[in-house]
Structure of GAF domain-containing protein:
Amino acid sequence: MTSAAEPRRQRELASLYATVKSLTALGELDDVLQSIVHHAHDLIGTDFTYLSLVGADGRLSARASEGTISAEFLAATIPATVGLGGKVLASKSPHWVRDYATSTRIRHDPDFDRLVVTEELVALLGVPLVIRGEAVGALFAADRSQRSFQAEEIALLNAFADHAAVALDNARLYEESRTALRELRVAYRKIERAQAIHEALTGVVLDGGTPGDVAQHLADQLGGAVTLLDRTDSPQGTDLAEAVAEARRTGRCATTSGDGGTDHSVAAVQAGDSYLGALVWSRPSATGDDTDLRTLERATHILGLLILKERAVAEAGERLSGELLTELMVGSPGIGPAQRARARARAIDVDRLDLVLVADSPAVAPADLVRHLHDIARERAGLAGEHLGRATLILPAADEEATAAEVHKRLRRALGGPVVVVGERAGDHDWARAFTLAGRCGAVLRALGHPDGGTTTRRYALYAMVFDPERAGELDRFLAGSIGGLLEYDRKRGTDLVGTLSAYYVHRANVAATARALHLHVNTLLKRLDRAGTVLGDGWRQENDLELQLGLRLHQLRSRTP
């Protein structure tokens, strides 16, 4: 008997040794599992052997087998609380059945019972795989005929399972370590890439790059397209607008999905409480990761500094431009040597600055208008600034009408509201006179009911006596001859016959309409008209009253013109 047991004992020891080698080899998890099953099959000598593990979903599934005939058997999963495996896992001890199909000692699972028939499984022995006190799976030895399992077989397979559990644990740790190492390497590469992008962006700034250069470099590195929105830009689409608002509110990237499988990530460019714009990164959906988004956020810090620097330079230039414009206005006609030198330093030929434009809007302050005029001045080698409370621009222009219309068009588009732009050509460097004419003509336009448009004083030469200070004497003489008596009467008696007659002619000599407009009774209005007749003469309504109407209109315009 001793001689018969010796070869078997040697085979068992060899299998255990092979298991230890699997343990120390630290191979791939699937390789270790298959090696465990192969050696167990060889050791026990049953028809087939398989190993099942408990998954994250709490179900038991076969991970490796030796001697099975059905592919479906290996693909099956069952709850970890049923079958022989359920008993093994719950008790953490070996269990076996002589005939699985007819056994009443186990809870049967209908799906697995069908596979038992397919695989012709009859007798089954299961031992637990225990790692640090937790049953993580079971090792099974099965025969296709009824049989009983002896204590020696059970003890051998159980001992084998203990070795297998150690090998399994080490393989899992090895796989987790490799996974962690891969993730660490990926993270390190991402960090290196982000660092390289950041250094490159800093280099772009140090080399004198613009915000547009930064955005283009980001697009080259991240892929897709990067758009820089100005602080005044309105994003297209509700989703993108909401993403911009969220990025401004949180200070972090906000991502939204657009049409055609495109994602848009937005990072706000801010300096303190000041919103300077936003970066929009557009790329195919499901591309980009958190590291890329952090890179986008860090790029906004560089952009913020760059935009603030450009703004400071621009504001300094605008201030110098405004100061030089004021000096030319105050010193005109003529140019001093200092002004000529300062203009030359700004690449401006003052001898060609022959058109003065004055802009005015009822809804926008002159300082805000001036900011837009500075953009035009830089493009056209001119000067812009605020002079005597008015937004003013001096440009070289061959066609003053076309230039006035173009400046109006740009301001109208930028402001989104009405604006009046009036130009006057300056002769012999007399910018001050051109400024006065353009500014007073603009007031006349508003008084005439024209709050929006771009034109020149030549278009309104008919009203030149009103807005040209040098023709004030002519206007005084004309008004004295046409409505002088009415003005004197009103001045001495505190009446308003001039206003009454102005309303009378505005309403085309309709007494009822005039009375309603002045909130007077008709009889009261008639008495005022009679009083005017006493001053003007009884036949004032029958004679040619064109001079009277023109006098009333010019007086009204002059009173509204500063």
About this structure: The first helix runs from residue 2 to 25. The chain has four domains: 5-175, 208-311, 332-466, 472-559. Residues 504 and 514 are 6 Å apart (CA to CA). The chain has 19 helices and 15 strands.
